Amino acid sequence: MSTFSQLRFWFYRLTQKYTHWFFIAPALLTLLLVAIYPIVFSTGLSFFRVTFDSLQRPFVGLENFVYILTDDDYLKVFANTLLYVAVTVTGSFVLGFGVALLLRQITLGRNWLRVILIIPMTMAPMAVGLTWNWMLDPLFGLVNWFFTTVGLPIQTWLAQTATARAVVMLVDIWQWYPLVLLIMDAGLAALPRAPYEAARLEGASWWMIFRRITLPMLRPVILVALLLRTVDAFRTFDIVRVMTDGGPNLTTETLSLFLYRTAFNFNKLSRAGAGATIMLIVISIISALMFRYLYREVEQR
Amino acid sequence: MRKPIYQPLLIYALLIFLALLVVIPLAAGALTAFKPQIIWISSPPTWNFVPTLENFEFVLIQRQNLLHLRNSLIVSTGSVTMALILGIPAAYALARFRFRGSKGLLQWLISLRMIPPIVVGLPFYVLFQTFDLRNNHFGLMLAYLTFLIPLVIWMMRGYFVEIPSAMEECAMVEGYTRLQALRKVVLPVIAPGIVATALLNFIFAWNEFFLALILGGRETSTLPVAAGTYVGRARVEWGNLFAINLIIMVPVIILTIFLRRQLTKGLALGLVD
């Protein structure tokens, strides 16, 4: 055998053995460039003092982390964000799951109702915020028009501390419960029939069937819905930016918005970087815990 | 157990109420886009008017939103095309080959979806300044790949798993190479999946606001960024605002109705299959 054909054969063996890497490499390398490199860069950045107006970037060690972790505003906004996540995830989950269960009870018009209900989820959060800004406008909005019609006082929904937070959360739930609805609807559709028929023969009540059959079988799907909602709620930016821009008095400010402002309005790029690194760590821990739980669930089946 | 007669009525009442909560704001907003300027700010809102296209003409031509529409189209189609080209082969490999670390790799890819945009947005801003990619279509497309590639892999893997691997194995026994088998046998079957993936990814890129806001500039800002400039003004031009809003929303709503069956797969089931 000539050297050339030996080489060709060797090359052929190589491509056969590592075919998968030829397929995966382009995506993997791109992701290393556009996802991993920026994260590493950003983490590195937070150990230096970086601003837009100075080319000097002195090493400052943990200064940025210490600063941001002792910054009352950052802590307040962190707490805000946790509350925001808790309320909107719970709200969208309960409503989405509830509506998914209700949708399975009906047949007439089910598909059309479902399509209409999921529309908010596919809209740009920017467009959602603008639409609700108008709905809630004290002078020209439909909500206040409805309020005056039934004899209630007009409210400046987004300017009052008391209402702004609740209203923004409600709009967030309005936009995102459809995601839970969609996931749970698919999960419910995939459930086997047999256990239900058996339970019905035994004369089990609706609640018993739900608790003992539906919930346990849906656990992985429920976890997916909660996981997706949690990470999305944690990084909320658009809706808040459009509706209140964090106000009044930081009550509706989220982490993303606060870090955006720290970097671009207050010119503290590396402090924002430190804040973002902390945020990434928290999200990673939360999602890693949920992931592990989820895969244990799936493997048990 | 007999169900009481009023139960379905209650269910319908609740669901229709929720549907109205979607339809009324959208319909009222859409109508406002067709209102002549003098009644934008009538209070209470009036619905008795002759529809006009002047708001659309004004925002598209005077306010240069034709340019922003073009930017949105370029960036969305460009980034989705790149994500498909890079992501589909990877999805195929992850669906077909079992190799050391394949499961971990898949989980890692999916977890990239969890990265908050601010975490990549800040470094992109600094890096793009260095490489002169700010206010640049290509730069924005690159930034979008961060979330588009994982989504493509996630969705397409689901479609590949569904078709039996015997298909391309038979073709390979018949003498095709793997690439030929892929092109001639697998591609025609998987095409609807690719279309669904492309369209769903398009929606995400089209709606994106944060990265476009910080990485774009005058010449490259997309429609959501342009719509954002209407916020916080003393006198809001409602008619113009809703004209832009409608231009952003209508393509997506049409795609949603078209894609309603594939939507779930794209958003969730990759995780639980």
Protein topology:
The complex is a heterodimer of chains A (301) and B (273).
Chain A: H1 3-17, H2 19-45, H3 63-69, H4 72-105, H5 110-122, H6 125-135, H7 142-149, H8 161-189, H9 194-201, H10 206-234, H11 238-243, H12 255-264, H13 269-300
Chain B: H1 6-33, H2 54-62, H3 65-96, H4 102-111, H5 117-130, H6 137-162, H7 166-173, H8 178-207, H9 210-215, H10 223-228, H11 238-259, H12 263-267
Helix pairs in contact in B: 1-11, 2-3, 2-11, 3-6, 3-8, 4-6, 6-8, 7-8, 8-11
How would you summarize this macromolecular structure in one to three sentences?
By secondary structure, chain A is mostly helical. Chain A has 13 helices and no strands.
Number of strands of chain B: 0
What structural class should be given to the helix and strand makeup of chain A?
Answer: mainly alpha
Shape of chain A: flat
What's the helix count of chain A? 13
**Average pLDDT of chain B, to the nearest integer?**
87
Reported for the largest beta sheet of chain A, the result is: none
Helix content of chain B: over 70%
Biggest interface and residues each: A-B, 98 and 98 residues
- The fold-level CATH name of the domain at 68-225 and 252-271 in chain B is MetI-like fold
Amount of beta strand of chain B: under 5%
Known CATH architecture of chain A: Orthogonal Bundle
The CATH homologous superfamily name of the domain at 68-225 and 252-271 in chain B equals MetI-like
Order of helices and strands of chain A: HHHHHHHHHHHHH
- The top-level CATH class of the domain at 68-225 and 252-271 in chain B is Mainly Alpha
- Could you report the average pLDDT of chain A, rounded to the nearest whole number? 88
Topology, number of strands of chain A:
0
Structural account:
The complex is a heterodimer of chains A (301) and B (273). Chain A is mainly α and 301 residues long. Chain A is 76% helix and 0% strand. Chain A has a single domain, classed as Orthogonal Bundle (MetI-like fold). The radius of gyration of chain A is 25 Å and the shape is flat. By secondary structure, chain B is mainly α. Chain B has a domain at 68-225 and 252-271: Orthogonal Bundle (MetI-like fold). In chain B, helix 8 packs antiparallel against helix 11 (238-259). The two termini of chain B are 34 Å apart. The chains are: A mainly alpha (301), B mainly alpha (273). At the A-B interface, helix 2, helix 4, helix 5, helix 6 and helix 7 of A face helix 1, helix 3, helix 4, helix 5 and helix 6 of B.
